[in-house]
Amino acid sequence: MAHEEDPLEHERASWKPSPGLAVAVSDPVKTPDLPPHRARMTDKDPVAMKRAVRTIYTLFYLSVAASVFSVAAYIIFPIESGRIADIRYNNLFVGLGIALALLALGIGAIHWSKAVMSDKEFIEPRHATRGRDSTRESAVKAFADANEESGFGRRAMIRNSLFAALIASVVPGIALFRGLAPQNSPTNAIAGDPVALLSHTMWEEGMRLARDPEGTPIRAADVTLGSAMHVIPENLAEMGHDEGYLEEKAKAIVLVMRLLPEQLVEAEDRKDWSYDGIVAYSKVCTHVGCPVALYEQQTHHLLCPCHQSQFDVTRGAAVIFGPAARPLPQLPITVDDEGYLVARSDFTEPVGPSFWERH
Predict the structure, then answer these.
(1) Where is this gene product found (predicted)?
(2) Phi and psi at residue 257, to the nearest 5°
(3) Residue 213 pLDDT greater than 60, yes or no
């Protein structure tokens, strides 16, 4: 019987690699060895090592001094004084002190790791972790080796200066918390009571409404439909930037808007608080005191950009969205004999945030 030849077998037997064709070889891939260790100058020269150590703890103690300086600047230039110079110098020197403290601390730590700590390369073998005594002993040895390599336990000056710098670095932040407490003002007889301080502003009966910041009085005829104006008391502009100007402006700042009179939904006891569709509301948000400065002409909504509280101007600046707890205080207004907008009285409630206890 004739044997039938397998064509595939013949093809495999006659196959030869083409010239230039790369043939894969199943040799194992070897992990390249680590490069030779290069000793640092501090490893070779004891004088260089001592110099590096001195530099490190000097930087750490410089960080301590800068932290103390920032606290001293906070005390020397009290922001609660209200003086522009104190506020500027407080921000400048407190900021510089904190920046220098953190910068010196960071540079010292980096220089320590680069010049003093052991920089020898090593390979850590991985193995199954077992909860045995030997595992715990290995962990203890690892910490001991790290302490030996870093010199943390042996180099007392570096260790102590690092601790001092870390502790001192948080002191300026703690000192700044003092500014959050109610401050007593020697120029105010009712100092210390935020409700009393915010219950009275510069507005009084007959006080003209003026544009911010130039202080130009505003005629009712100049307030166009759909407009919004930032307004201050007329006599506030006469103060210039004397002591107390910023505090009084922060309390008295007002937004004036004009709507169609029929669009206003007013309470019976407030129908005479507006004039021909012109209304005035405090610009200080009743959430945390941010400036309410965005007016949506079509919806008649006021928006606080800090936390998105929204107030409806057509309904007494009632809160319609966001975290604000109460409507914006309304300033009663009318016009004088010359057609200028004037206040009927001061605000009838405290302006500003609602998180203080109010009567």
Answers:
(1) Cell membrane
(2) -135, 155
(3) yes
Residue whose entry in the numeric block shows the structure tokens 């690699």: 17
Give me 58's structure tokens. 């000097």
Q: Cα–Cα distance between 59 and 10 in angstroms, integer?
A: 81
Comparing C-alpha atoms, which of 111, 135, 99 is closest to residue 41?
111
What are the tokens at 278? 């012109």
Class of domain 194-343: mainly beta
Report d(CA 285, CA 354) in Å as an integer.
9
Please list, in sequence order, all residues whose beta carbon lies within 8 angstroms of the beta carbon of residue 163, skipping any fewer than 6 positions away. none
Residue 84: alpha-carbon gap to chain centroid: 22
Which residue intervals of 83-211 are DSSP H helices?
Answer: 84-115, 133-150, 156-176, 194-198
144 close to 154: Cβ distance less than 8 angstroms: no
Residue 282 φ/ψ, nearest 5 degrees: -60, 140
pLDDT, tens digit (0-9, with 9 covering 90-100), for 214-244: 889 999 999 999 889 999 998 887 776 666 7
Rounded to an integer, what distance in angstroms lies between the CA atom of residue 182 and that of residue 160? 37
Dihedral sign of CA atoms 74, 80, 85, 88 in order: positive
Q: Would you tell me how many other CB atoms lie within 10 Å of the CB of residue 99?
A: 12
Position 106, amino acid:
G
Helix (H, G, I), strand (E, B) or coil at 40: coil
Strand intervals (E) in 169-253: 209-211, 228-233
Token pair recorded at residue 282: 């405090």
Which two three-digit tokens encode residue 345? 């009285």
Task: Please determine, for residue 355, whether its predicted confidence score (pLDDT) is greater than 80.
Answer: no
